[in-house]
Amino acid sequence: MMPSYSRKRERNGASRDFHLRGPIITVKRRPGHPTEGLMNVAGTVFPCTLGRGGISAFKREGDGATPLGTFRPLYGYFRQGRLGRRQTRLVMTAIDEDMGWCDAPQDRNYNRPVRLPYGASHEAMLRGDELYDICIVLDWNMRQRRRGRGSAIFLHVAKPGLPPTEGCVAVRPQILKRLLPQLSRHTRLKVLR
Fold it and tell me: Does residue 82 surpass a pLDDT of 80?
């Protein structure tokens, strides 16, 4: 006699949020090039750039490394007038000149957005280049923040020629525009070695 199984997912071991899972985007280091990566999105591979310190399982503030792990996109920023309106399921905020991101480990707002001017070390979100024309905030060191474990880990636009980042993952603008409709809080970005 064949065993019978419940049709309810939670009873037969499947996750309750199975239907909520989003795509998994994997990033691997390009062989022989520690600051260059290959991003795989549903079988399509794109070049990307990684931190000047390569990929690290022991990320520290200022080391220039991209952290090893799996991350969720939380929300994003965009620069008005540069790339037009882009469709995504993430909450996107237009960047103003008073927006910054704190990178001072001893500050109470470490690895958080801040309003400028700000007394502690920070970076301005409104930049002279195109890096933050589209900027997706990843959940690295966001919950249970640890001082000195790294801040401002984003998925953003790469500089021309794909030079290394300060620890983020960056892709060409046209690639990021193609990714935006697929991104949601259920997407996972896996950085592997």
Answer: no
CA angle at 18 for the pair 24 and 2, rounded to the nearest 5°: 125
User: Whose structure tokens read 């979100």?
Assistant: 125
The span from the CA of 91 to the CA of 73, in Å, is 10
| Low-confidence winner among 80-89, 153-162, 180-189 (lowest mean pLDDT) | 80-89
Q: Which residue has the tokens 């200022």?
A: 62
The two tokens of residue 2 are: 């064949």
CA dist., res. 143 & res. 149, Å (int):
12
pLDDT digits (tens, 9 = 90+) for 122-169: 999 999 999 999 999 999 999 889 999 999 999 999 999 999 999 999
Locate the DSSP E strands across 31-152.
33-41, 44-49, 55-56, 66-67, 69-71, 73-78, 92-94, 99-102, 113-115, 122-124, 134-138
Omega cis (within 30) before 160: no
State the pLDDT confidence band at 81, using cuts at 50, 70 and 90. Answer: confident
Task: Say how many C-beta atoms besides its own lie within 10 A of residue 66's C-beta.
Answer: 32
Residue ranges per domain, the chain? 21-192
Task: Name the CATH superfamily housing domain 21-192.
Answer: L,D-transpeptidase catalytic domain-like (2.40.440.10)
Q: In the numeric block, which tokens belong to residue 102?
A: 């704190």
